[in-house]
Amino acid sequence: MATMNLSIVTPVGSLVEAEVSEVTVPGAAGIFGVYPNHQPALVMLGGGELTYQGVEENGQVLIRGGVAEISGDTILIITDHAELPGDADREAAETILESAMQGPQDGEILDDIVLARITKDRAYAEAVLKTAGH
What we know:
The protein is an alpha+beta fold.
């Protein structure tokens, strides 16, 4: 079975280092899959649940934006915010979701950047509420 290295890095350090056979990533334009020997790419990320099929174990990580750098045998996720489902804060996610549902903040113009932020925040919050228990 072909594999690749998955690294998920945040400003506070590395969250995941794993040898994987498949990764499903929430991109800014929708969910996409990455397999070994994938075409090189640099992809803007959205928010939500990243899952992977590892050689030793499968896993999931909740992310909130960032970029994915993909090469033949490596996928590097660089994000300001990533956490394991067990570490997710439901109350914070509810606040983020409420803010996202209200749309642009006072004085903000709904342009592509604001829309991307709102979409990313909403997807992240919904993934936290879905995976972090009731």
